[in-house]
Design goal:
The chain has 2 domains: 14-87, Arc Repressor Mutant, subunit A (Orthogonal Bundle); 103-250, GntR ligand-binding domain-like (Four Helix Bundle (Hemerythrin (Met), subunit A)). Helix content is 65%, strand content 3%. It has 11 helices and 2 strands, in the order αααββαααααααα. It has helices spanning 19-32, 45-52, 56-68, 93-99, 106-130, 133-149, 154-170, 174-177, 180-194, 205-216, 220-250; strands at residues 72-75, 79-82. A two-stranded antiparallel ribbon has the order 1-2. The radius of gyration is 20 Å and the shape is elongated. The protein starts with 18 loop residues before the first helix and ends with a helix.
């Protein structure tokens, strides 16, 4: 059952991962992309490690990583099976990176942006009422970093994540703040995906400035609307990044 994803365009350098991490990434990509279906059973430890030419210990640790992220479940006498999607830890940064390693599933993509549209506009509205000068300073510095570096490079994307993290923290809601890592990873990987073939054709900076100005002015309704528009446009950009491949399939 095992197959390699080496032929795919990898965005996670192998040298940056330990062996068991690389194995988990390869299997994770196959699972979230739908190549491996829920309920299917992975090859046994001995067979899989022989096929991949890795130690049984490395393969076993890779399976443990996948199990911790809800992608597989192991049972005695049954083996290791692919879990149902509702058990997947979809906001886990690794899982998000695997989703965007290949062409993301349309349903998962829409669901991700639905979540952002539920959380971030409301967080922006709360931030407009609860933000401190420290929050505003962090957001302003992040905007400067985005403008200086652009989202085409890692430094610019890091600044973008800092902007959104500061906004969530400014909401003053501990449960919203707990989503910072997942939301940040979603923003980072969708931004990378949007630029996989060519630079962004639209400048997203004005969208971020409108959110910032509304939060700075304590305009709760304006902040909500500005963030809602930002997420809608980000979804449109992400969908547009899928179009060339879709057209190629039809031709």
């Amino acid at each position: 059952m095992l197959e390699r994803t080496n032929k795919s365009r990898s965005r996670t350098p192998r040298k940056a991962l330990r062996l068991h991490g690389a194995i988990a990434r390869d299997l994770g990509v196959l699972i979230v992309s739908g190549r491996y279906k829920p309920g299917e059973t992975l090859d046994g430890e001995i067979e899989a490690s022989d096929q991949l030419r890795v130690s049984r210990g490395a393969y076993r640790e890779a399976v443990r990583i996948l199990a911790a992220k809800g992608l597989v479940e192991s049972r005695p006498k049954v083996g290791t099976r692919i879990s149902q999607p509702e058990r997947w830890h979809l906001l886990d940064p690794d899982v998000l990176s695997w989703i965007f390693e290949l062409e993301p599933d349309e349903k998962l993509l829409n669901g991700l942006f639905e979540l952002r549209k539920i959380v971030e506009p409301r967080a922006a509205a709360l931030a407009a009422l609860r933000r401190t000068n420290a929050h505003l300073n962090t957001m302003a510095q992040a905007l400067e970093g985005m403008a200086k570096h652009t989202l085409a490079v890692e430094a610019g994307r890091a600044a973008d994540q800092e902007f959104h993290a500061a906004l969530l923290k400014a909401s003053g809601n501990a449960f919203i703040v707990s989503l910072t890592t997942g939301v940040g990873a979603a923003i980072s990987w969708t931004t990378i995906f949007k630029q996989r073939d060519e630079p962004l054709s639209r400048d997203p900076m004005p969208d971020h400035f409108r959110v910032f100005e509304a939060v700075k002015d304590a305009d709760s309704d304006g902040a909500h609307q500005a963030m809602e528009n930002l997420v809608d446009l980000a979804l449109l950009d992400t969908r547009n990044a899928r179009k060339p491949k879709s057209k190629a399939k039809r031709n």
